[in-house]
Amino acid sequence: MVEEYYARTSNHGYETCVEHLSMAAAFSGGFSGAFGQLEEGMLAGLFHDAGKYSEAFQKRIRDPEHVTKVDHSTAGAAKTGEQGHLYAAMAIAGHHAGLPSFGTEVDTSQDSSLKGRIKRAREHPDTINCTAMGEQFDFAMLESIKADTTSRDIYTMMMRIRMIFSGLVDGDRLDAEFFTEDNMPREEWELLHEIKDFFGTASLSEQQAPSNDRLLKAAEMVHRKLHDKAQTVIAHLASIVENRADALFAKPDKTSLDEKRCKILRQCLEEGKSSGFGRNIYTLTAPTGSGKTNASITFALEHARTHGLDRVIYVIPYTSIIDQTVAVFEKEFGEKAILPHYAEAPYRLAEEDDLNPTDVRRNLASENWNAPIVVTTAVQFFESLYSNKTSRCRKLHNIANSVIVFDEAQTLPPQHLKPCLRAILELVDHYQCTAVLCTATQPELLPVLRELRNEPNYEVQEITAMSEDEIMQFERTTITFTGHTTLEKLAQELASYPQVLCVVNTRKEAQSLYQLLEQEAVGEGGLYCLTTLHCAYDRKRLLDEIRARLAAGKSCRVISTSLIEAGVDVDFPVAYREEAGLDSILQTAGRCNREGHRPKEESIVTVFSTDGTIPPFIQQNLDALAHVKEKDFEDVNNPSAVHAYFTSLLNLRQGGGMRLRNAADPLDQANILRLHSSEGDNRRQMPFDTIDQRFHMIDSLTVPVYVPVNDEARDLCERLMNGERNRMLFRRLGKYAVQVWPKHRNTLLEAGKIVDVDPGSADASYVLQDSQAYSSEFGLELEVSPGEGLWI
Questions:
Q1: Rounded to whole angstroms, what are the CA distances from 345 to 56, 127, 324, 340, 655?
Q2: In sequence order, what DSSP letters do the residues of 179-220 get, joined into one string?
Q3: Which residues are within 8 A (CB) of 141 and not within 5 positions of it... i.e. 6 or more apart?
Q4: What stretches of 86-216 adopt beta strand conformation (E)?
Q5: Residue 221: what pLDDT?
Q6: What per-residue confidence (pLDDT) applies to 12?
Q7: Is the pLDDT of residue 433 over 60?
Q8: Is 564:558 a contact under the CB 8 Å cutoff?
Q9: What are the φ/ψ torsions at residue 154 (nearest 5 degrees)?
Q10: 378 in helix, strand or coil?
Q11: Which pLDDT band holds residue 764 (cuts at 50, 70, 90)?
Q12: Among candidates 79, 81, 60, which has minimal Cα distance to 70?
């Protein structure tokens, strides 16, 4: 047997197994302490690399060029599993390649499940022999820490496994980085030094393992110090929103709209300070233009300070509005307090040599969300919660003990509504979180929440409780339904307004109307077509131009698809909206007279229909709108009308009209919740890998076409064409991508407009070859005339 056991090597030398396992145990346990699982998390950290005590691994670390890789995670999983520590065992099994399924007794040694892996390991007992580790560490801990045998539903068990897995992955990665790298601007760096000093640097190097009591105290130190530091920062940020609120309340000569906004802000401030508003799910229903963003962050920070929560996580549905939210928060709280985590965040697109200190810090913090205010997307948030991947799950433990604000809550995807709400309930019930469903048009979610909780009388409290009259005081537009019209007639009407917004249901219709309006308003300028046929770079550029023209009082006519409705901050005097769901109509109305500078009688939102094809994905929304119109509400802005609409929409969706893949539940089309149970014909229990593959917030068959619209885009496309493939390249290409359906891709390919740079690959990439097929004003041209193909 070898006498010195090493966990890793770097240009700093060798790190002993004692040092790595001790440090990982302290941090994994400390992280899991945020949700009451400190001891289980500590066990996961202590035993995660038990297999490195094998002679095979020690030969590998000393001669990696000549010795093959060694499985060093199954040993710890088997050891902890023998004592009934299921959560630690599963986390250990997945800490390299991702969480496997748990499996069943019928699994064989050829299966990748935990059951299969342990059977395979038992065929080679030396791989799971922990005798050498037991000579350094006191295994009495395995018996003294009682395994949790409480009967729980499998969903709760699986989420706990993910959370402990998250703490283990983060603790393991942090220590690895701490040993191999020089000092880094990471928030945890000072604490890593402190814990190593607590154990004794020399002792760790000399393979003198800490006692079990000392390991436990170290984990408690990590938990306490991280929490105390977070509380200090949250208190500071809460004082900022208090001071800002006091300044607004004291502001002289407030307009009527200012007074209404102050009332909502005051409610959020007071309820945030209230001990009666405990950790729970709340709604924050704030009409468009009421200062919803400022009100919600005020409640969140005050609530976090009052109840000892560690951070605020702001979840936004679309990347098209995340930049403006980040800008608002950075201006108020400073860059250091804000972590924007989404694909197109500037620090994620910059080359390594171009990163400034803030960028470097954010890059590191994005790995585990150790920041006071995290701004992210719904895709990143929910897909991480249902992932089995180490990189995706690493941040999960820092969701615990947080306030989570779900902005534009009505946009939660209906096909995944139950898994999303079930995850929110789990975070509130078991991870000390508060969830705030924030929107101007609150969806009807209570029946689903009651079903998921199995509590018929379950209620969700509103933070800004307002009467219908108070809500209607924010009404700044008059919505009229004018029935059928033609695109030609519509173009004539739009041309009569110097500033007007028109939102239609399809990209093709937007382009057709744009072309007609071009003919009606010849030479006037300020005409825009805004659709997802533009790449994100051009959409942002066009929106900046639109805002500038509106502010300057210049002519500005915009034809757009629904992308402009998602909280985009623009203010038109007049708006038109093709018939869609009531929520979409009201969102368009929110882009009209946004600041209330004009009488509502003059701020008309005209709702019309045309002969255009109705996209199937909005048919149920139209049916629910028809139900509301049948009730003959005096004003569809009325909260009663909105409630009737969402109630009808929920009933239609539960009726099965949206079923895909033979799903048993139209609100869980990928059967995610059933996979979190032992029901049905699931052969494997806890199929983490299957769930990861199935749960996608955006189920789209579209493919990206990269458009070389400027020098940077041309350079990136050229690198792609020359065979370069890496994550950073694709991130940077993202803002130059147009998503197209396969039939359109095929048409463009046949016409020679685009080229497939990865033919035959499942992850094909396409680059636009014909510059005439894309216009920065018009977007990508999908209609290709026959005979335009390129013949060679």
A1: 43, 44, 12, 6, 40
A2: HHS-----TTHHHHHHHHHHH-HHHHHTT-PPPHHHHHHHHH
A3: 43, 46, 212, 215
A4: none
A5: 98
A6: 83
A7: yes
A8: yes
A9: -65, -30
A10: helix
A11: confident
A12: 60
